[in-house]
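User: Predict the full complex structure for these chains.
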Amino acid sequence: MIEFRQVTKRYDSDHTALAQVNFGLNRGELAFLTGHSGAGKSTLLKLIMVMERPSAGEVVVGGQLLNRLPRRQIPYIRRHIGVVFQNHQLLFDRTVFDNVAMPLEVMGASPRDIGRRVRAALDKVGLLNKEKMNPMQLSGGEQQRVGIARAVVNKPPVLLADEPTGNLDPELSADIMNLFTRFSQVGVTVLIATHDIGLVNDMGRRTLTLDHGRLIAGGSSPLHGAPGGVSGH
Amino acid sequence: MATDSRRKAEAGRGANTGRSPWKEQARSYLDHHRKVAKDSARRLWKTPVGTGMTWTVMGVALALPVALLLLLTSLQGVSAGWESSARITAYLKLEVPLEEAQALVDEIRTDSRISDIELVDREQALAEFRASSGLEDALDYLGENPLPHTLLITPEERSRSATGVEALVTFVRGLEGVERVQVDLGWLQRLNAMTDLLARAVWALAVLLAAAVILVIGNTVRLAIENRRDEILVAKLVGGTDAFVRRPFLYTGAWYGLGGGVVAWILLQLSLWWLSGPIERLAGLYRSDFALVGLSFDGVLALIIVAMLLGWLGAWVAVKRHLDDIEPGDIAGG
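Assistant: Here is the predicted structure of the two-chain assembly.
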């Protein structure tokens, strides 16, 4: 579902964020992406989101080569990728419902469809009763769950998360991880960037480790392996 | 992709129930437009002072050239009216007797360029002059009638141009017994030249003010874009196309235009009402039926449509210039 082939990303002539990264993730696989801060985690996620383009190598998502994707095609790729942020990027000028509805509105879904799917997504994260509230009235964990609902509301085949548990206590973090596990069980490819090593160890999933832009662990490419393959660590 | 196949399955079900998917899509597209338009209007409504000020600036900038254009149209109407009544006056020599003058009239009448010719004999002219000038006593002192027979010649429609009249004047001047030919075209040409000049000046002004309107709206929309930066970021992140992100701001520009057009129309009506009294009096003094013409219904419609287009264009400039700067590249820190 996601494949990196010899991907290098240089920002300026001297700063190399990623160097010859190789890995592949199958459908329904859940993997972690770890490394010290500045190791290139965010750059890797941005390459998948086409927020950045690689300096060399190939990035393939859902069978589509992203390197030379024309600019106006980018939105259509992003509709297949749900993203969860540490600071969740919710809009405080609208209700929880309207926040979660955004990916559907962007796609031009009908209001009936939007209502049904937003409620389904909110139900999955256990916030169905809070749809009319402003995200500002919610707790940190609840806000993060709204962000997750928004990321999965249009059932994307890929889900990315950047430090999704950064501000949460361990119990809430476990909740969130359970959610991600459930998504991967229904076939969503989940990649979670985090430096919460404890959490990573608890989950016992495949872990991609970056160090100064190089992938030093978990980089095997199980291109034809079993879905949800666990390579351990 | 699993979800793709699922989506296809859903679409298939939709088709089976008899609802054509493109119709559904078109409806939701229109629904979305309606929603965005309403939302943009509501946002403007929420900041009444700022919106009102933008509307007023736009209204003033639009009202000025439109007012000048109206004035110009009125002036051109006047000169056209006078042009159609352009007459050639031929004064015959004093010694020409009435019969000879009558013969001359008959001769001129045969010319195809003449639509009408009238002979004013000297006695009749004197009587008229006496009645209208108030110089009765002075005229009594004159032993004999100082006025000659006069021919009033109205050219045919197609000879009413400056050159046509010129040719006619040469022809009449060459006739036997004609002392002097007078045609009052000079001032008409001057008026025409002046309105031509004014027209160009007005159009230049209109273009400048339209550019000003575009810049004002562009700047206002730029601020709106800054205010909604987060929303734009999220929309781009979840796969909003450029058109989707642009749309609310284009509507905002169009709404600014609508308000500006209406304000311009109100300003025009007010100044027309304010000026109509004095203009009527002045025109009365000149024995002219000159009147400032207001905007017709079509004119008002055109004004508002042009204003909305300008607003839309201004928004488009701002959107083109600033929306590309907002890219979600810096959203994911670390």
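Residues 87-183 of chain B form a domain with the Alpha-Beta Plaits fold (CATH 3.30.70.3040).
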